[in-house]
Amino acid sequence: MFSSKSFSILAFLSLAACCVVTTTSAQNSDEDSGARTRDLLIEKRDALASYVAYAETQFLQGTLPSWAVLDAKLKLLDTKLDLADSHAERIRIFEERLENRRFRESRLEQAFGTGDVTYGEKIEATVERLDAAIALAKERG
Q1: CB of 67 within 8 A of CB of 108?
Q2: What is the pTM of this model?
Q3: What does the DSSP assignment read for 22-35?
Q4: Alpha carbons 141 and 139: distance in angstroms, whole number
Q5: pLDDT tens across 111-139, in order?
Q6: Beta-carbon count within 10 A of 44 CB
Q7: Buried b (16+ CB within 10 A) or exposed e, 48-72
Q8: 3-state SS, residue 88
Q9: Contact indicator for 111, 67 with CB cutoff of 8 Å
């Protein structure tokens, strides 16, 4: 009924069609996954923004130290970085992260002077500030 050549061509075309369907399906799945990830990041950003507002209120009431507010802001900035659409926006976020790290380092130095934090915590803040400066330099190229 079918020659071996016809059968081979039919098998090849079936395999090719299967590959096209699989590739298209995978691309659609990747797009859906990317959109879902972005939606989750937006939800995370909004939750962290709410927490930053809460932390700032707690700080003003004297129930939360300033570096805890700064930590909350850093988490928010990290999420904003994941959502950044342009190089300029990424640079701005890296700059803001560095400024936040500088401020946190100065607060922890003051707290170390009064005995409220350990030397290790103070040095960790310095290293984190340096890491932020390095990340900004790398992003700028």
Answers
A1: yes
A2: 0.71
A3: HHHHHHHHHHHHHH
A4: 5
A5: 999 999 999 999 999 999 999 999 999 99
A6: 17
A7: beeebeebeeebeeeebbbbebbeb
A8: helix
A9: yes
